[in-house]
Every structure is written in structure tokens, then in C-alpha cells.
Amino acid sequence: MTRTVYFDHAASSVPSDKILQDLSSLLKHYYANSEAVHQMAYRSREALKKAGQRLSLALSGRDDHPVIWGESATGLFRVISSFPGFETSCTTALEHPALLANLQNHTSADIAGAAFPGRFRLEAFRGKTYDLSCCHQVQSELGSMPDTGEFFSSITPRCRMLDAVQAAGKMPLDKNADIWIISGVKFGAPGGAAMLLAPDGRFTDKLLAHAHWCRNQNYSVSRVNVPMMLTMTGALENAVDMMSENRKKIIQLNSAIRDGVRKFGIEPTLPENVPVSPYILNLLLPDQESAIIVRALGEMGIFTASGSACSAESGHPSPALTAMGFKPQKAYRALRLSFGASNEPEEAGIFLKGLENVLKNY
Asked: Is the backbone of residue 228 left (phi > 0), alpha (psi -120 to 50) or beta?
């Protein structure tokens, strides 16, 4: 039987057997409506409160960050962008398409351009004040890691939001923010998302009230799935506990592929001197369209991506590369590999052999 090699963890990771067993057990205990007035609902709300403290502690080292739970990061982006206190916003063209869409739909958004290899064109922001400024810790297609301190200090934001979706459970959380967004499917949970708020944040109480309104009056956010949030919390704690060990093996895997693809004339899209998460490796193929390579590798049991999860089937070239000025013909050649805790260094050899066969028959 051919071994499955899954290199698309930036879209959705592989839950361990233990995590799935935890979810099964929790579903048997916390199935009641957590918003009811009976005793089972009180028990669910208390479990959710404790989970919020655990989540805060795992991510920040302190247990007092208020948490807003959600089904997905996209849903939480909608909560933030629809908050009446955020009339103006600023971000960059390298942010996740779901965040960009929500900011443009709900706020007066200024979006800075980008330049290779992932620099932001922030000149238009200088001297201006914005209600909300948003930046990623790790770029979802390229894995680049911008200087968020420089980004936030270049403008005058009333509130700073950090997209930590590709960072949570894989590296320490960047502290340069008032709001952090994480997504469970990126670090081994079967679902769920969370928004952490600064305990003494300027908008914390109002955001909590707004999230309650979205969930219970506007119905733009669904009811909290308590078993899923508890499972996500456990998955995050496990990822944080294993962070150092996982990082070592992922660096080994990443390096082996970087070295191995050079014999095919393939180089990483970003130069070596750019800070990049080891969990994402974006490769630029010499003259092959990556979507064709992705499909051919998939037939061999090797699963990769040609861009971010939200744009993979859009028919458009890599949004990140086009934002940095790549011509569409070149941007179509970006192949994204993204790794997770379930990957092992020896999978590099399987991938390289499969890629060699696919390129021969392209």
C-alpha cells in the first residue's frame, strides 16, 4: 500500500487518534445547549470558561485573556470587522483573502501594496490614525514572517489585530497586538477557532458584547460547539508542549526538500535571508503550472497545494505573488508545501521521488 504524504497542513492538519478520541468522549458529556438555563448548560459554560483560561495560558503564559469562540477564523474576522467601533481599518495586500474581504465589506479599508520578497508599502499609512490595523504573524502562502512591531509602529492604530492562524501551536505568539486569531484545524484539532483579547484592551469589553450580539441577536455567528472548543484547547496544549520537538523535525524535513529540489532546477520562492516559518515552503517551478503538478502528485498519494486554501480552486494565480508584482504566468508556478506534527523527515525522500516522476512526464 502506498504511503500517504500530506503536505497541506496550512489548509487543514491531521488530528491524532488521541484528539479524535477526546472529541468522541467530550461529545458524550457536553451535548446539551450551553445557552439554556438548566444544570447541564451551567456545566458546559463552566467547562468553556476553564478552557478559555487554559487556551490563554498555553498561548500567552497567563490565563486572563478573554476568549471569543468561533467555528472558523473567517467567522471571527467577520465579528471583528463588523464591530461598530471599527469604522476605519488598514492592512496589506498579503493578508488572507477572508480577512481582506471582511474588512472591505464592513469598514473603510486602506490596503497597502507589497513588494518582493514580502515587504509592505506602508508610506500611505504614515501619519494616519485607524480604528483597526491587521497584520499576519506568518503569511499563509509564502510562510514569510514580517516585523509586526515595525508594521504597527508605522501607523497610529487604536486597536491592533494579529492573524496568528499559521503560528499558533508552532511558534511563540507575537505579543505586538490587542487581538489574536487562531484556527484549530491548523494545529491538529478537527475544528474550532478562537479570538484572544488583551485583558486590559481598550475595546475588550465592547468586543465581548458585540460577539454576544452577533451570536444571540444578529445570528451572524453560530452557537458555540462546546466539545469542539474543548478538543481544540487540548490540541493546542499538546502542540505547545511538543513545539520544540516538532520544530526540529520540521526544519529537518524542510531543509531536505529545499536541497533535494535544486537538482530539478527548483528554488524556494523567497530568498534565504527572508525570515520564514519552517512549516511552509513555497517553491517556484521552472516552467510548469503548479495546479497540474498538484493533481499529478495527488494521484500518487502526495498532497500539496498551489496556493492558499481559499483560492486553490479559483482559477487565479497566487494572490500573494501577484500582490508582490509577479506576472500571472510566473505566479501560476508557485507550489506550496506545508507541514505539521504528523509529518516525519523521511517523507522528504518520498516527495522528491514522486516529484521527479511527475516532472519527467509533464
From this structure: alpha
C-alpha cell at 9: 497542513
Distances (CA, A) of 315 to 90, 109, 307: 27, 26, 11
CA distance 90 to 108: 8
Q: Cell 467530550 appears where?
A: 26
Q: List the one residue out of 178, 166, 196 whose CA is nearest residue 59.
A: 196
Cell triple for 319: 494572490
- What distance lies between CA 130 and its chain's CA centroid? 24
Angle at 130 between CA 197 and CA 85, to 5 degrees: 55
What is the greatest pairwise CA distance in the chain?
65
- The per-residue pLDDT of the chain, averaged, comes to 94
**Distance (Å, whole) CA 271 – CA 310:** 25
Per-residue pLDDT of 273-326, as tens digits, reads 999 999 999 999 999 999 999 999 999 999 999 864 444 444 678 889 999 999
CA distance 65 to 199: 5
> Among candidates 117, 111, 105, which has minimal Cα distance to 135?
111
**Residue 294 · residue 305 · CB < 8 Å:** yes
- Quick check: 338 and 351 in contact, CB under 8 A? no
Closest alpha carbon to 93 in 320, 328, 327: 320
